[in-house]
Amino acid sequence: MNNIKITCIVVDDEPMALNLVESYVEKTPFLELKKKCSSAIEAMEFIKKEPVDLLFLDIQMPDLTGIEFSRMLPKETRVIFTTAFDQYALEGFKVEALDYLLKPFDYAEFLAAANKANIWFELLNGKEQKTQNMVSEEKEFLFVKSEYKQLRIKLADVLYFEGLKDYIKIWLKDNQKPILTLMSLKSLEAELPEHQFMRVHRSFIVALDNIDVIERSQIIINKQRITVSEQYKPKFLAFVNNNSL
To answer: Which pTM does this prediction carry?
Structure first.
């Protein structure tokens, strides 16, 4: 874990909710509260003068909703939504919120969401250094056992790896059938260059360069839809944000 604090503001038009989230932020060691605001307009004016890393943002507010405000934020600023209405969860995901807290929530729920933000910023801060370190050690191929043979797999040709208990399916460009090999996804993950491949689900590792479309919580590679599970979402969102215009 790093020692860098995540700067944040709390935005809510309900004074009790505003004070509660403020108290949660203040007892979370890696968060630094810069301001609490009773409207999105007030928060917008503050961010113009002093950008922050993270917003704890209510959705249903007068004049400008949290969803509308989140679309105006710089891409470096992340959001955790707080709301009493669960119908906004899908909208929250569309604007790439790190998490969604449904009122009333306790400190344990708040901390779980804050920890997602902490992981996201750690990954973002460490990505550049990791990438530099990986370049000199980049692998171009792997040998895998399949049908009593050692097959040379060119990593640039891999679309994704699919785990099936003790086996892995290796899906390649221009191959209609996958290569089967006896191996665990966990052991394979340790051998792959981190800047080329990412675990996005218990059963899938994807080739980042071969992603065609990202749609809500799914990745599309060669017409195959792969769900990004909650466990791996912060890391994947950090990758998307770092490569977005």
So the answer is: 0.54
